[in-house]
Structure formats: structure tokens, C-alpha cells
Amino acid sequence: MAVCAMEIVIYAIEMAVCATEMVICAIEMTICATEMVISAIEMVICATEMVVSAIEMPFFCNRNGCSCHMNGYFSHKNAYLWHRNGRLCHGNGQLCHRNGRLCHRNGQYRVSHFNSEGIALTAFLTKLIADLIIHNFLPLSIVESPYLQAIFHELEPSYVIPKRRYFMKNIFDIMYSQVKQNVYNELQLDSSICLTTDIWTSQVNQAYMTVTAHIVDLDASCIKNFVFETTEFARNHTAERIVERLEEICIEWSIGHKVICLVSDTCNTMRRVGLVFGKGSN
Known about the structure:
Layout: H1 2-56, E1 59-60, E2 69-70, E3 81-84, E4 87-90, E5 96-98, E6 101-103, H2 116-135, H3 146-155, H4 164-188, E7 193-201, E8 207-217, E9 222-232, H5 239-253, E10 259-263, H6 268-277
Parallel strand pairs: 7-10
Antiparallel strand pairs: 1-2, 3-4, 5-6, 7-8, 8-9
Helix pairs in contact: 5-6
Keywords: Metal-binding, Nucleus, Zinc, Zinc-finger
GO molecular function: zinc ion binding
Main location: nucleus
């Protein structure tokens, strides 16, 4: 019995030694894993330092012979390089030599100050505002909005949005003439034109007459619509007066011989317009 007990004790000791070795092995594995984590952290720190170094390294402008040194973060608002339509803009009072000119952006001189590029930029931005007003049916007073002015000041501090009178007398008249000429040219290429007309009254009891032309664009496989005009139509709405205005429009746009039909509502006046105009009314 004593021998058996001794063997059990020895076996227990061996088991304890084995367990201890397993604990030591686990500790060593933990130490190894910790070292790997530390190594990974060091690699991340190293990579971060490389990124920071790359971001903070000086930038140089090599466009058209410009060699300006850009300090600080490239994406920082006060130290940026902006190439747009051939213009060079540096923030935070940086300098740019272009075509013999010295340009500043420190609140006193702008890259667009007294040069042809500035004139082109001003015209471009003004045209953008005009397109915004026209295509979104915005009131002309939007040009006086401090929020819109703040946006354009942030984009180009040297640009000042013109007054609404300037848009009316200069921008919109020119755009209207250009669009009218484009529509005129397109109508001359088409052989068949349909007109629609209607007279309606506004909430303030003012009557208006609208005339629209419709053509089929075979190349684009679509119908195109052109509103010739919406003008006030005061006094009596007689068929003779309506026909007279339609004939004036046909002469103005040189389409009298191309109109194949006139579409309107079914009131008696418009029926008579169709008969007098000689193009039929539906």
C-alpha cells in the first residue's frame, strides 16, 4: 500500500510539473503576442509619422514657371494652391509669378485684379448666377442675398455680385438674344411647325396670351417646345386681334409657311381664330 501511495504522489508531482510547464508556455506565448502587438503599434506610429511628414512637407507650384513655396497643410484653407482655368491662387498671402505679374491674396490684391483672367472669371461667375436664376425660376432679388454673397466670397473673394439692375440691362438681354437666335436657327431647319395658343387671366385680373411652337426633332427622336412669348393681352379678346398677333409672330420668326396646325381650346373665339388664321383649330 505504501508503494502504491508513493506512485500516486509521484504521478501527482509529474502532473503538477506538466501543468506548470503549460502555464510557463502560455506565459511565453502571451509575451510573444504582446511583443507582436507592440511591434504592430510601432509600425502604425511609423506609418503615421510618414503620413504627417508627407502632409507637412513643403509644396511647390510648377505651373507655367511658378515656383512658389507652399508651407503648412496642403488642404488648409489658409495655405492652398488653386489651379482653375489657368489661374493660380495661393492662400495666406502667398505669392505667384505668372506672365510677369505678382499676385497677392492678402485682402489688398487678388489674382484676378486688373488682368484679363480676372475679367473672364467675373463674366463666368456672373453667368453662373444668371443661369441659377433662370433655370430655377428664382426672383432677381436673390443676388442681394447675404448667403449667396457669402458663398461667392468664399469661392473668390475678389468677386462682387452685380446689382439686379446690371443683370436686367446687361446679362439677361444678351442671354435672351442668344437663345432667341438659337431657336430661330433651329426653326429654320424644320419644315413643319405646330402652334398652340391660349389666353388666361391672372389672379389680379390681368389677361395674358401665350404662344408656343412645337417641332419634331428626328435626330433626337423627341418633341421640342419653344415658348415664343407670354405677353399682356388687354382689351377685348376678339378673334381678329388674336389672329393679328399670331401673324405678327409668324413673320417675326419666319415660320408662316411652315405652320401646319394651330391648337387651342374649344371656345367660340378660338374656333373663329382657327378659321380666320386659315390653319384649322382643334
